[in-house]
Amino acid sequence: MHGTGHFICKFRGLMIDVEFRVVGGQREGLLLALGQVVIANGFTLLRQRMVAGSEGASLTMHVRGPENRLLQLEENLGSHPLVRSFEASPIDGAAVRPEPRETMAPMAAPATAPSKAPVIIHDPAQMPRVQALLPLLAREYPNIFVHLRALEYELTAEQYDATLEYIGRRVGAWVYKRDFALGGQLPPGEAIRRIALPAMRQVLEAELQGQQLHVTNSPFCGRGRKGACCHFLGGMLAGLLDTAQGTNTFRVVEAQCRNAGAAACAFEFHH
Fold first, then answer.
1. pTM metric for this prediction
2. CA nearest 81: which of 118, 34, 42?
């Protein structure tokens, strides 16, 4: 990346207080490393507590920051190499405040900023449900789709699409750390072929056709929805590749979907 600049960020959304409970493999450096992640995502670490446990160091952090950046913070914490597992929940009774204007410190600016829409769960009250679901998906993986489809009956259409994409990103990051993390970092094209494709084949029929990854049996199609509907699969692919590259720059687009009449669900990768 080239160039530096001063950026003035004007937040116009809501502030939210969240408690993270993190289990890390080591105590030394855990708070410093995760505190930097919290700050880099625009949050403030209000208080913390660390204790030693049978599974490793257990760190509890109370943070406050912009609600529309919460999911990005969770994704960055969940994929951090020092983190074995974590849970997050809004703090009951925490005040939701108008966000203040805030000046960020000088930071590097990319020559061309990637176009990437944020992943948002529209109702923060769904976060405890999502956090409870993630360990179940890990335990029963790859037999996960019955649990994901059950969310159709619990969420509105808008909540469902964004929530499934977020869950997919979390699952993709977990699969990468479980199955692919010991390999060296690959160029984006090779990462798609050697990580995204075999990971998708763990759960569905998939193949590469040119620059697209095709899935022929997505379980999200034909369930009464209109248009492209495989938000979990796109999120999973993005979570795999972002974690593999150590960035948050992959954008996965479902260019075709069986739910919209295509022969297969086709995903394109933009980096």
1. 0.60
2. 34
Both structure tokens of 121: 């769960």
Torsion, Cα 178 184 185 186, to 10 degrees, reads -100
- Cβ(219)–Cβ(152) below 8 Å: no
What is the mean pLDDT, run by run of 10 residues, along the chain of 271 residues? 30 73 83 86 87 81 85 82 81 44 31 39 69 88 91 83 92 92 86 96 96 96 90 96 86 96 96 82
Helix/strand/coil (H/E/C) assignment for every residue in the chain: CCCEECCEEECCCEEEEEEEEEEECCCCCHHHHHHHHHHHCCCEEEEEEEEEECCEEEEEEEEEEEHHHHHHHHHHHHCCCCEEEEEEEECCCCCCCECCEEECCCEECCCCCCCCCCCCCCCHHHHHHHHHHHHHHHHHCCCCHHHHHHHHHCCCHHHHHHHHHHHHHHHHHHHHHHHCCCCCCCCHHHHHHHHHHHHHHCCCCEEEECCEEEECCCCCCCCCCCCCCCHHHHHHHHHHHHHHHCCCCCEEEEEECHHHCCCCEEEEEEC
pLDDT of amino acid 111? 33
User: Alpha-carbon distance 145 to 180, whole Å?
Assistant: 22
Q: What is the pLDDT of residue 112?
A: 34
Residues in the chain: 271
Contact present, 77 and 34 (Cβ < 8 Å):
yes
What confidence score (pLDDT) does residue 124 get? 63
